[in-house]
Specification:
This protein is mostly helical and about 350 residues long. The chain has a single domain, classed as Farnesyl Diphosphate Synthase, CATH 1.10.600. Helices cover about 70% and strands about 0% of the residues. The chain has 16 helices and four strands. It has helices at about 30-55, 60-70, 75-85, 95-115, 130, 135-155, 155-180, 185-210, 215-245, 245-250, 255-260, 265-270, 275-285, 290-305, 305-325, 335-345, and strands at about 15-20, 25, 120, 125. Strands 1-2 form a two-stranded antiparallel ribbon. Strands 3-4 form a two-stranded antiparallel sheet. A hairpin with a 7-residue loop joins β1 (about 15-20) and β2.
């Protein structure tokens, strides 16, 4: 589902940040007052997560707290809190609960994804399926959804209805990826998968944060659509970094997705080219690329292709959408922070 290994997403905040299993993410926004408000609210979200997820039988708590303790940048709840700043009641208890719901749902999808992808690591620690087994990981994800549902019930019918739709899209995206393009255009298929698996939950954070702060319908809609666009930017940028980044700069080994048989957007664009490079890529990329020599050869071919430029064009397309949605919001330091977030994400590709 959302942000699994097959469609990796690594969330990014603004400025200097850090997170651990003991403290909330700390982010610098350039506005001291905004920074203090959001960081204080992030600690409230962290407290809510621990309080909610530590209830139940010990053998359940141990499992569901595994990834929570591992930390993470908590971008989704942070975005929900920022979105609430456009409402009349920002950073209230209801907003904090909504932010926690989004993060718990995200955590649940990670447990399920790691089973499907046979992942061994997540957030720098062994994945739940590797530490225990697939059954435990699946059930841990399920109980996380139960926790999210309990919090949702305190937020009202509109939130429950929204999450029914959201989770339906998350599952649809995972199923869509699993069944494949089925003769359709692989690029259209891939874009729909990342919209459903990645974009939809970030959009949900913007929607719920602003909704529970009593923002106007126009502002709620703008923040939801901004989140969806940023989700697409994050994912496509990660796709580009996986293929074209320098390990010393990104910390990631180029071609990781290729080794797992995942052909991301720049690869799909390159394979579609009616060129010698495209033809060779189509003949080589028929499944996971297992040996280093072949990976290096494929990376060389991709560097000669137009795949990077085509994927970057999509990044800038979604950047335009994000900016258009931000233009619907009032001018303030929060809007500036959100715009910088989108710009920062694009800068990651150099």
């Amino acid at each position: 589902m959302s942000s699994g290994r097959t469609v990796p997403t690594r969330s990014h905040g603004l400025g200097k940040e850090g997170a651990s299993g003991n403290d909330a993410t700390q982010v610098e926004f350039g506005d001291p007052a905004l920074t203090a408000r959001i960081n204080n609210a992030m600690q409230q979200v962290e407290n809510t997560l621990r309080e909610e997820l530590s209830t139940g039988e010990d053998f359940l708590v141990d499992k569901v707290m595994h990834l929570t303790r591992a930390g993470g940048k908590r971008f989704r709840p942070m975005f929900a809190l920022l979105a609430s700043e456009f409402g009349e009641k920002p950073l209230t208890e209801q907003v904090v609960k909504a932010a926690a719901v989004v993060e718990i749902t995200h955590l649940a999808t990670l447990y399920h994804d790691d089973v499907m992808d046979e992942a061994t690591m997540r957030r720098g620690v062994p994945s739940a399926n590797a530490r225990w087994d697939n059954s435990v990981a699946i059930l841990a994800g399920d109980i996380l959804l139960a926790h999210a549902s309990r919090l949702m019930s305190q937020l009202g019918v509109e939130t429950v209805a929204h999450f029914a739709e959201t989770f339906g899209e998350l599952v649809t995206g995972q199923m869509r990826e699993t069944v494949g393009a089925r003769g359709g255009d692989p690029i259209d298929h891939y874009m729909e998968v990342i919209r459903e698996k990645t974009g939809v939950l970030i959009a949900s954070a913007g929607f719920l944060g602003s909704l529970h702060a009593d923002a106007t319908p126009e502002h709620v809609d703008a923040l939801k659509k901004f989140g969806a666009a940023v989700g697409m930017i994050f994912q496509i940028v990660d796709d580009i970094i996986d293929i074209f980044s320098d390990t010393d700069e990104s910390g990631k080994t180029p071609g990781t997705d290729l080794r797992e048989g995942v052909f991301t957007l720049p690869v799909l664009y390159a394979m579609r080219e009616d060129t010698e490079v495209g033809a060779e890529l189509r003949s080589v990329l028929t499944g996971p690329v297992e040996d280093d020599q072949t990976v290096d050869h494929v990376l060389t071919l991709l560097a000669k292709s137009g795949g990077r430029q085509a994927a970057l064009a999509d990044v800038h397309h979604y950047m335009d959408i994000a900016n258009t949605e931000l233009d619907r919001l009032p001018d303030n330091s929060v809007k500036d922070a959100l715009r910088e977030l989108a710009v920062f994400t694009v800068r990651r590709v150099g």
